Amino acid sequence: MNNKTNKSPWTWIPSLYFAEGLPYVVAMTVAVIMYKRLGISNTDIALYTSWLYLPWVIKPFWSPFVDIIKTKRWWIVSMQLLIGAGLAGVAFLIPMAFFFQATLAVLWLIAFSSATHDIAADGFYMLGLDSSQQSFFVGIRSTFYRLAMISGQGLLIIAAGALEHYTGNLRLAWSITFFILSGLFLLFFIYHRFILPRPDSDITKTQNSPNEIFREFGLTFASFFQKKGIGLAITFMLLYRLGEAMLVKMASPFLLDARNVGGLGLSTEQVGLVYGTVGIIALTLGGIVGGIAASRKGLKYWIWPMALSITLPHLAYVYLSWVVPTDFVLINIAVAVEQFGYGFGFTAYMLYLIYFADGEHKTAHYAMCTGFMALGMMLPGMIAGKLQDMFGYQHFFIWIMILAIPTLAIIPFLKIDKEFGKKKNGTI
After folding, report:
1. pLDDT (tens digit, 9 = 90+) per residue, 58-117?
2. How far is 19 from 186, CA to CA, in rounded Å?
3. What's the predicted TM-score (pTM) here?
4. CATH 1.20.1250.20 domain position(s) in the chain
5. How far apart are CA 176 and CA 163, in angstroms?
6. What Cα–Cα distance (Å) separates residue 166 from each residue in 151, 170, 174?
7. Where are the alpha helices (DSSP H) in 168-278?
8. How far is the C-alpha of 2 from the C-alpha of 180, rounded, in Å?
């Protein structure tokens, strides 16, 4: 690797992956909490915020064009500026009478920009580092992505709650919160505009005509659906997180809703602590333990324990909804148990995507797998609010447990190499 500017990866990898994670958590979680605090119904929150997954569903369709048009560096800084402008737009629109429709439209554009930023940042990571640096910094990038999750779901929500109390005006508090986010992304844009290296390999690819580009993409796309066992694989991708896809949309509303309607009646700050801080830390620890376990005995050995761990800990929410405890420590423990199980069980899902994508076009095929992964979260999430309104929280969480059946039913039919995922000579 020959860089025109010899900058240490430490100067840009942490900030780049923090910037990658933050808009995702804003679109997926912060928006849900904001709309709940501003009086939107659970049905509308789940239905309309689930559409924010769509850019990640269709990401594989335009990822080749990010690779061809302009440089990865150009896409990164441009998307950060666009995300910053979008966040400012949300802040301006929150006080408006038509804020729900208007902010949703802007959040969708932010989500689209974020998905594009993901493509460019992950590609830039491979261009800006040599192979040994890529291996060394893979843990660093994951850590700062997780820190963005904690900052978004935790610290940002806590700050928004504090502003609610300080201002006495919910809309003003959330508007200020989004202005802060916008300013942060303006700083990211300025910083990365000057700090990101300029790898010689990060060039605009103009050697292929548009017809050749579309033809190559079409062949790669078609080859994915010609893979052996494609039907079973897609079914697994769509069903493995079926219960979690519905649970994640209603977890924050459940924690926030008053006790007389079946919720736990927590404050905005408390939700930021329990779901965005304790929960994310438990999720991360579950993922770490899952990765260590899978590297020792492989995916085939762990697929059943991990599938059970992503479904059975949902009982924590059944317990919370029926007992409705007031002990804040107990609530934290219950959410931590569910999130740890999710993190541990999610390891098998990601390993399977890598396993199925392996082959001649593994990069493109893996991107397509992640598209189905996002679709598996988007479609169930859209009806989660309607079901919760129909059943109430207690029976909704029992329904979540019933959804473990399709997840577990698909496992016996999967064909997985016994050796896949095991650590060999220090690598996986």
Report:
1. 888 877 777 777 888 999 999 999 999 999 999 999 999 999 999 999 999 999 999 999
2. 11
3. 0.83
4. 7-198, 230-428
5. 8
6. 20, 10, 12
7. 170-195, 210-224, 230-239, 242-256, 268-273
8. 37
